[in-house]
Amino acid sequence: MSTICTICHTTNTVQNPCKDCRTLTHTTLTWLATNLTDIETYRINRAYGGHKGGNGGARRSEAPTPLHETIYDLLYLDRDGNILETLNTWATCLNQPPAPRGCLARQAQLLRDNPKLWESSASPVYAKETNRLTNRLRSTIAIMDETRIHIGNCLNPDCAQPVYAAPDAKDARCQHCNNTWTTAMLRRATSQQLLASSEEGKPGELPAMLGQFGIDINANTIRTWAYRGEIQQTTTPDGSPTGRYRLADVYNRYLKTHK
How many CB atoms lie within 10 A of CB 132? Predict the structure, then answer.
């Protein structure tokens, strides 16, 4: 007698859920078991725990960008379904204890290896939900990993073109001359370039100028520094204030907060 798979709803004459859905779920749980530790301890901590309070913003690799927030919500908060609640509820149905944050990879592994996984009538429901959430999580991470910012200019003196890489990349390849540099070297050179810059801008202009180098500073923060006298306006030849500030001074003040 044929049966209908409770996950994909296709006719199946052998088992329910069908073989393909069981294989997909096993693959999904394996991916979670392999990657959730990195996602929970590295990506989330980088977004939410890597920046100490204070004025001046943070590097983009540390800032809680919408993509980071989406990952955080998918893991823990989303009311329409999150991985923490889904895996733990599924585990409870199988008499496994719930796992706290930071241990979801282990929970996924225990579910995958549970010999009675498909004996529970609840498993098809949670398997389908786990597959859906994991697809969203993988897509979001793929988008985040494609993000590129200006790390600095190529150190090849015959090139000196802008080099872009992911915010947390360790190496970056110049698209113009194909030389590869460590991002640490490029950032040091960029820092020296900014400290020696003679460019000026208004508080509303400077964030965009610094943002090209992956440095986030709020315009209101710059105004606060100016109000406190921590940065000074430039002046005209007759000594009148211009309403503008040196890029180097703003960057130097930024470094005092983010060393």
Answer: 13
